[in-house]
Design a protein that fits this description.
The complex is a heterodimer of chains A (about 120) and B (about 110).
Chain A lengths: L3 E4 L2 E4 L5 E7 L5 E7 L6 E6 L6 E2 L7 E3 L5 E6 L8 E13 L2 E5 L3 E5 L1
Parallel strand pairs in A: 2-11
Antiparallel strand pairs in A: 1-3, 3-8, 4-5, 4-9, 5-6, 7-8, 9-10, 9-11
Chain B lengths: L3 E3 L4 E4 L4 E7 L4 E9 L5 E7 L4 E3 L2 E6 L4 E6 L8 E9 L7 E2 L3 E6 L1
Parallel strand pairs in B: 2-11
Antiparallel strand pairs in B: 1-3, 3-8, 4-5, 4-9, 6-7, 7-8, 9-10, 9-11
The chains are: A mainly beta (about 120), B mainly beta (about 110).
């Protein structure tokens, strides 16, 4: 099992460009999440999905869109990148509802720089 | 008040030392508690869940004090490989999707 994979690993964008980050999991997990991690801050939830075809906003959704057309994939889109979106983006998944016995697994991250 | 606060660190300890990390959380409805470990430029990985009665996994011991809204992680006999950032993570009752992460405490174990 590959677990959670993310594509690409690194990307540099110019302000105003668009891109899509792809997250894939092969664990048959229902829930998937997108976080961003910035220096001096904890991970912050951007969007999440509790199943195929469903998405919802997290703490910091502005400037991002997501889609979950297939259970195993969760896409994060930046329509018009801004320097404030320079960050490390982590995708995660869990079998179901979070709790003491339901672990969240993370992908290796995508390092995005917006110039 | 921030939702999850951790010791700011960094902690620099010699091999073999015992080190303790503390974490406080502000939401009394918090239900599940975790310590994650994050190596430099890597993803977070679950180190251990924290149970009400406290729990131990080898050299690692986690404690929870609900009355004081306080979580701790104790590492005994530190190894070089324990060098990482330790994240305190909380999930509150009724929130089936949201984990709240602390900023993390950096630990460096020196030879």
């Amino acid at each position: 099992n590959a677990g959670v994979t993310q594509t690409p690993k690194f990307r540099v964008l110019k302000t105003g460009q668009s891109m899509t980050l792809l997250c894939a999991q092969d664990m048959n997990h229902e829930y998937m999440y997108w976080y961003r991690q910035d220096p001096g801050m904890g991970l912050r939830l951007i969007h999440y999905s509790v199943g195929e075809g469903t998405t919802a906003k997290g703490e910091v959704p502005d400037g991002y869109n997501v889609s979950r057309l297939k259970k195993q994939n969760f896409l994060l889109g930046l329509e018009s990148a801004a320097p404030s979106q320079t960050s490390v983006y982590f995708c995660a998944s869990s079998y179901g509802r979070l709790g003491a016995y339901n672990e969240q697994f993370f992908g290796p991250g995508t390092r995005l720089t917006v110039l | 008040r921030k939702e999850v606060e951790q010791d700011p660190g960094p902690f620099n300890v010699p091999e073999g030392a015992t080190v303790a990390f503390n974490c406080t959380y502000s939401n009394s409805a918090s239900q599940s508690f975790f310590w994650y470990r994050q190596d430099c430029r890597k993803e977070p990985k679950l180190l251990m869940s924290v149970y009400s009665s406290g729990n131990e996994d080898g050299r690692f011991t986690a404690q929870l004090n609900r009355a004081s809204q306080y979580i701790s992680l104790l590492i005994r006999d530190s190894k070089l490989s324990d060098s990482a950032t330790y994240l305190c993570v909380v999930n509150w009752e009724g929130s089936n999707y949201k984990l709240t992460f602390g900023k993390g405490t950096l630990l460096t174990v020196n030879p």
